[in-house]
């Protein structure tokens, strides 16, 4: 009887340990954080180099802030699921395109 209880306890412990990292990992996505940081860096560099006007930089900054707000709101429930991560990546794709286009238009921030 003791042996059966020991095995059952071991199995339960392993099951709990196996599910904990998965649930913790679902609440954060380092890819999203990296993309947000990189886009912030690109906006700052564009502003400093004059490739972005002040207005363009403000619009891009607001858009990136909106992505951050969406991410925080989505994480506040039960973490990010697949659909929420996809939505955030789509928002970041659109912001990335806006940064690219704004930095390459003829307007200069000098």
UniProtKB/TrEMBL annotation:
Signal peptide start and end residues: 1-24
Superkingdom in the source lineage: Bacteria
UniProt entry keywords in alphabetical sequence: Signal
Chain intervals for the UniProt region annotation (Disordered): 22-51
Biased composition (Low complexity): 38-48
Keyword Signal in annotation: yes
Protein name: Uncharacterized protein
Source taxonomy: Bacteria, Pseudomonadati, Nitrospinota/Tectimicrobiota group, Candidatus Tectimicrobiota
